Each structure stands twice: as C-alpha cells, then as structure tokens.
Amino acid sequence: MEHTIVDTEMAIALIPKEEQDHTRHLCRHIIEKNAKSNDKRKHDNVNEIIRVLKQTLNANNVITTKADKENTTVLIKKNEYIEKTEKLIKETGYKKIGNDPTGEYQVAIKSAIKRATTIIKENEAGRLTSMNPSAPPMISLPKIRDITIIREKNKSQSIVIILK
C-alpha cells in the first residue's frame, strides 16, 4: 500500500496546484476503502485508483511512456514529449517518407527467393517472408540520463518524473 500512496503522490505532483488537493482527496478515499476491504475489493479499488490517476493525468496532458533503458516508466508533459521527439528527428536527420516502402521490399525479397532455387528449397520459401509486413511506428523513448529518478519501487521497475 505504501507504494500505491507514493506513486499516487508522484502523479499528483504533476498536475496544477489548484487541482492537487481535490485529486489527493479522491485518491485518499479510494486508498482508505482499499485498506478496509478484502482481496477482490482491493483489486477493484486499485483499478479505481488507476482510473482516477489516468483521468487526472490525461486532463493535464501528462503521458506515461517507457524510458530507453531498463524497465522504467516515465511521466512527462505531452508537449514536452513532442518537443523532445521533434528535436531528436531534426538532430538525427530522419526524413518523412510519403508511403510505406515495405511492400516494395517484400516484392523484391520474394522475387530473389524464387530465383535462389539452388540454395532455398520451395517448401522453405514461405517461411522466409511475412504475410502482411509493415514498417514499425516511430517511438520516442526518453533517455534515463535526462531524467531524475524520484523513487525506485524495486529492482525490476522504476517510476521517474522529468523535473525542470
């Protein structure tokens, strides 16, 4: 339960000051109900806390995302996430393409496989290509060195908040 309280308070710290007390009151009420209930109800109450936190974070344009390393969750303002992603794109020289070229590559690969009959048997050819390939979406993961770790829950996962 201590972890839930600390995690809740960390998320509340990201919302505007005038909304913090109200959100804290709602979450306190849910946590107190959780402490008095049985296991099934505890699970339901934890889900309720998560729902309230998600709504509050969403209302304040705060998103959760994974960090680039380890098993870490980051809370970051949406506009800051977008700015950092746009900066990354500009600095690395990525270019936007008009359409997904994966289909063209798939056709070329299948053609090369068909021509390579001496090294690739006909019954193996189908396993070398995907049915409906597509390019992966771009994902921007904040770097751990750019953020301050507030509290480490356990060795497998940390929750961090970007502080300015």
Structure write-up:
This protein is 52% helix and 14% strand. It is α+β, with helices and mostly antiparallel strands and 164 residues long. It folds into two domains: 2-88 and 141-161, no CATH class; 95-137, no CATH class. Strands 1-2-4-3 form a four-stranded mixed sheet. It is elongated, with a radius of gyration of 23 Å.
Short description:
The protein has about 160 residues and is of the alpha+beta class. The chain is built from six helices and four strands.
Averaged pLDDT: 76
The largest pleated sheet is described as: 4 strands, mixed
Rg, Å, rounded:
23 Å
Structural category is alpha+beta
**Gross morphology:** elongated
Strand content: 5-15%
Distance between the termini: 29 Å
Could you give the topology of this structure?
Blueprint: H1 2-12, H2 17-36, H3 39-59, E1 62-66, E2 72-77, H4 78-92, H5 102-115, H6 122-125, E3 148-154, E4 157-161
Parallel strand pairs: 2-4
Antiparallel strand pairs: 1-2, 3-4
Helix pairs in contact: 1-2, 1-3, 2-3
Notable characteristics:
164 residues, alpha+beta, 2 domains, four-stranded mixed beta sheet, elongated, disordered C terminus
